[in-house]
Amino acid sequence: MMPAGLSHRRAIIVGAGQSGLAVAAALIGQGLRPQQDFVMIDAAPAGQRSWSSRWHSLTLLSDAAHSALPHHRIPGDPARHLRGDEIADYLDDVQRQLGVKPVWDVRAISVERRGTGPTLQLSTTVGDVQTRNVVCATGAAAHPRVPAWAASLQLPGAMMHSGDYRYPRQIPPGDVLIVGGGNSGVQIARDLLGSHTVTLSVRAHRGQLPLTAFPAEGSARAWLRRRRPEPVFGDSYQKLRRAGVRVTPAVTAADSVTVMLADSTRIAPRSVVLATGFEPADDWLPDPVRTTPARFPSTAMPGLFVAGIPRYSRPGADTLDKVSRDATIIARRIADRP
Ligand SMILES: Cc1cc2nc3c(=O)[nH]c(=O)nc-3n(C[C@H](O)[C@H](O)[C@H](O)COP(=O)(O)OP(=O)(O)OC[C@H]3O[C@@H](n4cnc5c(N)ncnc54)[C@H](O)[C@@H]3O)c2cc1C
């Protein structure tokens, strides 16, 4: 059943994460009222933001000063690095302060234009709604990226993507291979070190910088974007090695219970955690929007906007301190539309 009050709003924001909230804040700044002029839907169960489904010991790379939405300061030391559950609580507070009441458990399935007019039809799991503006804020790091070889593995222990990893007891005792030497792989290796025998498989050696050096802005941020592969912040491979982690080359293939590494050695891990990254949740957008190079803030469908996914916007659009830059432009455009 379609929840009352979703249809015929001036805008529907799809996604109640930091990107959706940044757009909500910017629309309020343009004089639009939550629940009256715009509504927000989210596919997750009530209040389950993506941060609450990351591993429990996750520490943000950005410091508190650069993890806040404008006008919503994070209390305490601006140089501290919040845990995932703390940033989830912070976003709950922002939502309350804005007076936004997301409609949870409603997934957007597709969006299309009705005729030649300004009306868009958003199809959701609870029915179709009509509106003039739809903002896709469904996340740049949403769907696990799983390497093809992973399908061949049948391990005696567990196999999961970092998106499903929460805490060490999920992994049966014994040895575990973490695939991916980026910031997620390094943090998960540290998390499992006290309870498991950990191997970290890395494709290319990455430089290391202390967490305090995570570039917040300006030329340092631009430098980081150009660096391939991106350095790891926090523990270096060397430090992890000293703590007992075995660091190996990349996995190139797998066969039942063994994986083949780039140096042609084979190992037979009991469990595997794939820290191999994510794809954006833009699969519900129409093909022309996904395939036409974006001209931010517009997309190939007038009235459809995308916030928080760099492919449709600019580098950094998916970070806590940069998403509001795009949200402000999108809100202004929505306010100006008839
Ligand atoms: C491990 C990790 C660590 C990170 N660390 C940092 C950091 O330190 N600093 C930083 O600035 N950034 C960091 N980021 C990047 C970014 O800040 C986060 O990914 C952040 O959660 C993005 O917020 P978002 O609102 O764009 O997306 P999300 O938080 O993913 O929110 C999207 C919402 O959309 C909903 N949704 C998805 N599909 C649909 C649909 N079809 N219909 C309805 N709802 C839908 C989801 O349920 C979700 O609630 C990190 C990312 C990851 C993965």
Task: Describe what this molecule looks like in 3D.
- The chain is an alpha/beta fold.
- The chain has two domains: 4-142 and 280-336, FAD/NAD(P)-binding domain, CATH 3.50.50.60; 145-274, FAD/NAD(P)-binding domain (3-Layer(bba) Sandwich), CATH 3.50.50.
- It is built from seven helices and 18 strands.
- Strands 1, 2, 3, 4, 5 and 18 form a six-stranded mixed sheet that branches.
- Helix 1 (18-29) runs parallel beside helix 2 and helix 1 packs across helix 7 (323-336).
- The radius of gyration is 21 Å and the shape is globular.
- It starts with 8 loop residues before the first strand and ends with a helix.
- The model has no long low-confidence stretch (mean pLDDT 92).
- The structure holds flavin-adenine dinucleotide (FAD).
Name of the CATH architecture of the largest domain: 3-Layer(bba) Sandwich
By CATH, the superfamily of the largest domain comes out as: FAD/NAD(P)-binding domain
Mean pLDDT: 92
Q: Please give the number of β-strands.
A: 18
Number of domains: 2
CATH top level of the largest domain is Alpha Beta
Q: Supply the number of helical segments.
A: 7
Straight-line N-to-C gap: 30 Å
Instruction: Tell me roughly what share of residues is in helical segments.
Output: 10-25%
| Content-based structural category | alpha/beta
Based on CA atoms alone, the radius of gyration comes out at 21 Å
